[in-house]
Design a protein that fits this description.
alpha/beta, homodimer, six-stranded mixed β-sheet, Nitrilase/N-carbamoyl-D-aminoacid amidohydrolase, 294 residues
Chain lengths: 294, 294
C-alpha cells in the first residue's frame, strides 16, 4: 500500500470553461483507465490564466465551493475511484475570492481544500487583484492514497511552505502551477527562470525527504489588454523523488499525461540516511517569522 | 564596488597539518595574484577528515582561536590584502570543541567567526562526537567585500539557515564542505546524492536571491578504523548566481582554483523581478520552530 499510482496532466487551456472541463474530464478518464489512483491538474485549469490583466468582469469566472466545478470533478473522482487534485477560482463571499485547490477522494467527497497562501503580483500575473491570501494555513489533506501537501504555484518558491507541510506529516508535496516565459526575455533568461523553478521544487523534495509533484500548463495565451506580449507557459511538469531525483518530466510544449508510481516507503528510507529532521536547530529559528531581521 | 572577485580552492588534503597549511598558503597566494579579493577554502582544510572514526586523540588536532592556525591565515590575508574564509577545528575549552569558520579581513584581522550549527552524525561522518553545536546563531560576517553568510557543510541541507542569513542581510552564502561518496553505493545512488547536494544549495540562491559559494575537498581518504571503505570526496565546488545559475563548477576529482566575479548588484535586480521577501507569510510560519508538528 506504499505505492501511489500517479498521473500528471499537462494541458493547454482555451476560453470556454465548459469545453476545458470536458477536455480535462476526458484526460482524467484516460489517466484513470491507465491505472492512476492520484491525478493532478495544473493551476486554474478551468479557464485561461485571466490574471494577465486586472478586469472586474473576470470575477464572473469564480464559483462557490461546493458549486458547479466541484460537482463536476466530484462526480468524476467518485465514478473513477481516484483521488483528484483540482485548482479552482473560489467565490467565498461577494467581493471575496481565493485561488483554491480542492481535493476529491475516491468516493467523490471533498477530502479537503487549500487556499493559496503566497500571492504573487508582477506584470502579467496580477494575482493580488484577484485572490485574497489563504487563511487556512499549511495543512496537508488526508486522502485514501496518503496525506497530500497541496500548495499552489507561487508557494513553490517558499521553503517555509514545503517545510510546514512536511512537519504536519505530508507524504507528498503537490504544486498545481501556471508559469511561463515572457516573450521578450532572452533565451538565457528564460532558461534561468525555468531551471530555477525546477531546482527549488526538487530542493523541497531533498530538504524534506518527500516526493514532489508539479503540474504546469503549456501553450501560449495572449494578454487581452495587449500591455504585455502574453505568456508562453513552459510546461516541464515533473515528479521528483525524495532525493530530488527526476522520476518523470514533461516537455516544454506538448499536452501530456505522464504516469508514475510513487513509493511512499522511500521517504522513510531516505530520511534514515539523511536525517535532517533530527538535527534542525529549532532553538535558533525564531527570526524566520520576521519580515527582515534588521 | 559591487563586484567581488572570488576564488574557490578545491584541494586534496594529507595527514601533515603544517604541509597542508603550506600547500593552501601557496594556492591562496596564487589566487590572490590572479586577482581574487575573496578566497574560500573547503571544510576543515588543515587536516584529513578525521571524523571518519571516533578517536579521542583526534582532539589534539584542535587549536584555540586565536591560535597557530589563525596566526598563519591572518598573516596571509593581511599580506595579500584579501578576505579569506577558513574552516578550523576550534578548541574552546578543555573538552569543548567546535567546527568553526573564521573569516579574515584584508588587514589580517579576524572579521568574525561562525560555529557550525547543524552537526551531522552518520557512518564515516561522526561529527556529533567531535563538535559541540554552534551557539552563535546565524549571523553574517561583515567584511570589506560585503556581508558574508558563512555556513558549514551539513548546514547546506537546511533552508532555514540560508533564510536566516539572508534576512540578516547576507550578500552571499558560503559553504565550506567535506562530502563524498560511500564506495559501495551504486553509481545511481552516488549521482542522486551529489545532484541533491548541488540542487539544494542552488535553491538557497533562488529562494533568497543571493549568490552561493560552495567549496568541497576532493580525493580519497581511508577510514583509519577500517570499519567503512573510506570517503571519495566528490569535488564539484561551485558558485551559483542569485537565480541559482551556475557561474563556475569544478570537476569531481581535480584540485582546482576557480576564479569568478560575483556582482552583488544582481541581488537587487533579481529580487525586483522575484520579490519573494515581499510575500512571505510570516503570520503563518510559527510552527517552523517545532520539531514535528504532530
Amino acid at each position: 500500500m506504499s505505492i501511489i499510482q500517479t498521473a500528471i496532466i499537462q494541458i493547454k487551456v482555451g476560453s470556454d470553461k465548459l469545453a476545458n472541463r470536458q477536455k480535462l474530464g476526458n484526460k482524467i478518464r484516460e489517466a484513470a483507465n491507465a491505472g492512476a489512483k492520484l491525478v493532478v491538474l495544473p493551476e486554474l485549469h478551468d479557464s485561461l490564466y485571466f490574471c494577465q490583466t486586472e478586469d472586474v468582469s473576470n470575477f464572473d469566472l469564480a464559483e462557490p465551493i461546493p458549486g458547479p466545478a466541484t460537482d463536476f470533478y466530484s462526480q468524476l473522482a467518485g465514478e473513477l475511484g481516484i483521488v483528484l487534485v483540482t485548482s479552482l477560482f473560489e467565490k467565498r463571499a461577494p467581493g471575496l475570492y481565493h485561488n483554491t485547490a480542492v481535493v476529491f477522494d475516491t468516493n467523490g467527497s471533498i477530502a479537503g481544500k487549500y487556499r493559496k497562501m503566497h500571492i504573487p503580483d508582477d506584470p502579467a500575473y496580477y494575482e493580488k487583484f484577484y485572490f485574497t491570501p489563504g487563511d487556512m494555513g499549511f495543512e496537508p489533506i488526508q486522502t485514501s492514497v496518503g496525506k497530500l501537501g497541496v500548495l499552489v504555484c507561487w508557494d513553490q518558491w517558499y521553503p517555509e511552505a514545503a517545510r510546514l507541510m512536511a512537519l504536519r506529516g505530508a507524504d507528498v508535496l503537490i504544486y498545481p502551477t501556471a508559469i511561463g516565459y515572457e516573450l521578450t526575455d532572452t533565451d538565457a533568461e528564460k532558461n534561468r527562470q525555468r531551471e530555477a523553478w525546477i531546482t527549488i521544487q526538487r530542493a523541497h523534495a531533498v530538504a524534506n525527504g518527500v516526493p514532489v509533484i508539479s503540474v504546469n500548463r503549456t501553450g501560449y495565451e495572449a494578454d487581452p489588454s495587449k500591455v504585455t506580449n502574453g505568456i508562453e507557459f513552459w510546461g516541464n511538469s515533473f515528479v521528483a523523488g525524495p532525493q530530488g531525483e527526476f522520476m518523470v518530466q514533461a516537455s516544454n510544449t506538448n499536452e501530456e499525461i505522464q504516469l508514475i508510481d510513487i513509493d511512499k516507503q522511500r521517504t522513510e528510507n531516505v530520511r534514515r540516511i539523511w536525517p535532517y529532521f533530527r538535527d534542525r536547530r529549532i532553538d535558533a529559528y525564531a527570526s524566520i517569522v520576521k519580515r527582515y531581521d534588521d
